[in-house]
Amino acid sequence: IRTIGVLTSGGDAPGMNAAIRAVVRTALGKGVKVRGIRKGYKGLLNEEIIDLDAGDVSDIIQRGGTILQTARCKEMITEEGQQKAAAICKKYGIDGLVVIGGDGSFRGAQKLAYLGVNTIGVPGTIDLDIDCTEYTIGFDTAVNTAMEAIDKVRDTSTSHSRCSIIEVMGRDAGYLALWCGIANGAERILLPEEEGYDIEDIIDDIKESKKRGKKNYIIINAEGVGDSVNLAKTIEERTGMETRATILGHMQRGGSPTCKDRVYASIMGSMAVDLLLEGKTNRIVGYRHGEYVDFDIEEALGMQKGIPAYQYEISKKLSL
Ligand code: F6P
């Protein structure tokens, strides 16, 4: 491998910069040239390719977002797009590519691997919804950001004796909601992995908790369940308790990465380069059972993780 390309793809996540820095510095340390590809696969197809040296990645480990910028790219789903992307890699001498992103980005990486570009995926998403790994870059920061925001909503919710519904991101996955629910001591957590929720049960519980003298009622609602504003209206009408919905939105994706995100992202970025230099391709770096591991992309995409049922049960027990 003479030249390694690096790109970030899909939604950005805090810690991506730490991974980029690790890719660049590990590769340079081994005498390998690095090219940064801007705006994910979209930038690759538009040939937005720059050389990166050690200085280009200084002073970025603490920054949120991604210095390379990112994008979602429909063209990369097509065979034509994939062929074009592989040809551009070849044109720029990129014989190894590190793709930092989520499942969709890894599918693109897999296609490129089949077309002769050595690729390694690094899991980057605040959603934690990559099945082969217990850690994804950005989740730790996002969950801490959301937790702090929810603490603030709780303060005002208590002052006004309100029910507060706080909607957190996560697309179709409920990891952010589950973790916030436990960390913020929520009365309810609504997860997309559950088949709907029982509104009658929620209403009865709110009435009961009012009788027991609870000063507020916090519901963490996952984005995949959604409809927080209507749920708030229903609850207010049916319980008489003032109810407000807060949708945290994209603030969860920003901010300086936590120590965990900086360290794990650094190790994974560095490992991706080591794997390429060992001659490996078509693999994803992951973290499982306390160790950094790597999987074949096909195998990784076929794995299933799911919300740990025991953790969800515990969250319910603690919300009395
Ligand atoms: O995948 C990360 C994520 O933030 C999801 O939680 C959310 O559903 C989605 O991206 C939002 O995407 P966009 O930034 O395109 O609105």
Automatic annotation (TrEMBL):
<comment type="pathway">
    <text>Carbohydrate degradation; glycolysis; D-glyceraldehyde 3-phosphate and glycerone phosphate from D-glucose: step 3/4.</text>
</comment>
<dbReference type="InterPro" id="IPR035966">
    <property type="entry name" value="PKF_sf"/>
</dbReference>
<dbReference type="GO" id="GO:0048029">
    <property type="term" value="F:monosaccharide binding"/>
</dbReference>
<feature type="binding site" description="in other chain">
    <location>
        <begin position="169"/>
        <end position="171"/>
    </location>
    <ligand>
        <name>substrate</name>
    </ligand>
</feature>
<feature type="binding site" description="in other chain">
    <location>
        <position position="212"/>
    </location>
    <ligand>
        <name>ADP</name>
    </ligand>
</feature>
<keyword id="KW-0067">ATP-binding</keyword>
<dbReference type="InterPro" id="IPR000023">
    <property type="entry name" value="Phosphofructokinase_dom"/>
</dbReference>
<dbReference type="InterPro" id="IPR015912">
    <property type="entry name" value="Phosphofructokinase_CS"/>
</dbReference>
<feature type="domain" description="Phosphofructokinase">
    <location>
        <begin position="4"/>
        <end position="276"/>
    </location>
</feature>
<feature type="binding site">
    <location>
        <position position="11"/>
    </location>
    <ligand>
        <name>ATP</name>
    </ligand>
</feature>
<keyword id="KW-0547">Nucleotide-binding</keyword>
<comment type="similarity">
    <text>Belongs to the phosphofructokinase type A (PFKA) family. ATP-dependent PFK group I subfamily. Prokaryotic clade 'B1' sub-subfamily.</text>
</comment>
<keyword id="KW-0479">Metal-binding</keyword>
<feature type="binding site">
    <location>
        <begin position="102"/>
        <end position="105"/>
    </location>
    <ligand>
        <name>ATP</name>
    </ligand>
</feature>
<dbReference type="GO" id="GO:0046872">
    <property type="term" value="F:metal ion binding"/>
</dbReference>
<feature type="binding site" description="in other chain">
    <location>
        <begin position="125"/>
        <end position="127"/>
    </location>
    <ligand>
        <name>substrate</name>
    </ligand>
</feature>
<feature type="binding site" description="in other chain">
    <location>
        <begin position="250"/>
        <end position="253"/>
    </location>
    <ligand>
        <name>substrate</name>
    </ligand>
</feature>
<dbReference type="GO" id="GO:0005945">
    <property type="term" value="C:6-phosphofructokinase complex"/>
</dbReference>
<keyword id="KW-0808">Transferase</keyword>
<feature type="binding site" description="in other chain">
    <location>
        <begin position="214"/>
        <end position="216"/>
    </location>
    <ligand>
        <name>ADP</name>
    </ligand>
</feature>
<feature type="binding site" description="in other chain">
    <location>
        <position position="154"/>
    </location>
    <ligand>
        <name>ADP</name>
    </ligand>
</feature>
<dbReference type="InterPro" id="IPR012003">
    <property type="entry name" value="ATP_PFK_prok-type"/>
</dbReference>
<dbReference type="GO" id="GO:0042802">
    <property type="term" value="F:identical protein binding"/>
</dbReference>
<keyword id="KW-0324">Glycolysis</keyword>
<feature type="binding site" description="in other chain">
    <location>
        <begin position="185"/>
        <end position="187"/>
    </location>
    <ligand>
        <name>ADP</name>
    </ligand>
</feature>
<feature type="binding site">
    <location>
        <begin position="21"/>
        <end position="25"/>
    </location>
    <ligand>
        <name>ADP</name>
    </ligand>
</feature>
<dbReference type="GO" id="GO:0016208">
    <property type="term" value="F:AMP binding"/>
</dbReference>
<comment type="function">
    <text>Catalyzes the phosphorylation of D-fructose 6-phosphate to fructose 1,6-bisphosphate by ATP, the first committing step of glycolysis.</text>
</comment>
<keyword id="KW-0021">Allosteric enzyme</keyword>
<dbReference type="GO" id="GO:0061621">
    <property type="term" value="P:canonical glycolysis"/>
</dbReference>
<dbReference type="GO" id="GO:0070095">
    <property type="term" value="F:fructose-6-phosphate binding"/>
</dbReference>
<keyword id="KW-0418">Kinase</keyword>
<feature type="active site" description="Proton acceptor">
    <location>
        <position position="127"/>
    </location>
</feature>
<dbReference type="GO" id="GO:0006002">
    <property type="term" value="P:fructose 6-phosphate metabolic process"/>
</dbReference>
<dbReference type="InterPro" id="IPR012828">
    <property type="entry name" value="PFKA_ATP_prok"/>
</dbReference>
<dbReference type="GO" id="GO:0005524">
    <property type="term" value="F:ATP binding"/>
</dbReference>
<dbReference type="InterPro" id="IPR022953">
    <property type="entry name" value="ATP_PFK"/>
</dbReference>
<dbReference type="GO" id="GO:0030388">
    <property type="term" value="P:fructose 1,6-bisphosphate metabolic process"/>
</dbReference>
<feature type="binding site">
    <location>
        <position position="103"/>
    </location>
    <ligand>
        <name>Mg(2+)</name>
    </ligand>
</feature>
<feature type="binding site">
    <location>
        <position position="244"/>
    </location>
    <ligand>
        <name>substrate</name>
    </ligand>
</feature>
<feature type="binding site">
    <location>
        <begin position="72"/>
        <end position="73"/>
    </location>
    <ligand>
        <name>ATP</name>
    </ligand>
</feature>
<comment type="subunit">
    <text>Homotetramer.</text>
</comment>
